[in-house]
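quick one, 204 residues, struct below
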Amino acid sequence: MEKLIIPEPITEINDGYAGREDITSVVILNSITKIGMWAFSNCTSLAEITIPNSVTEIEEFAFFCCEALTSVTIPDSVTVIRQNVFEGCTGLKEIIIPNSVTEIEFMAFCDCKSLTTVNIPESVTKIAGNAFECCTGLKAVAIPDSVTVMEDAFIDCPNLTVLLSKDSKLQDDVFKGCKEVVRVDNPTEELKTFKENILKADKK
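---
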């Protein structure tokens, strides 16, 4: 098993590492500005990756089917989460979306079955269709008023409670197939309570 360090002065990672089952962790140095399409796709043992703020683009399918990946922090230099970028990351439990992100594209987190909660920052204006399709473990997501949610964005998420503000203009039927839609004073704060309850349940 191998820890991979992407050396300087490389500025872009192409698909040369795709399918490498021996890679368990990746450290990307500050010279990198772009993680290209299919870059680490099907690296099924990849469990840990450090993405620096120098990275401004993470392209489609970059981490497709990285089943061992459990947590990802997207740097605040990234503005769009591209389509299918984390599709099939079935072990992904936590995703940190920064305030720089304005759009989550088609099937970006499709089939991320281990995700339990997601906090969508107010910078996001659009969540594309099927973005969180088949996230069957997803229990709570807080969505701010700034967001336009396309139809089927959360399709086949049967355990999901969607937290909206009481003033949100989003229609409940956008979330068909989800467990429930709850309108609250502060969705982000309510999400913290959900996380705490999930942690308590896991410890039992």
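Residues 72 and 95 are 5 Å apart (CA to CA).
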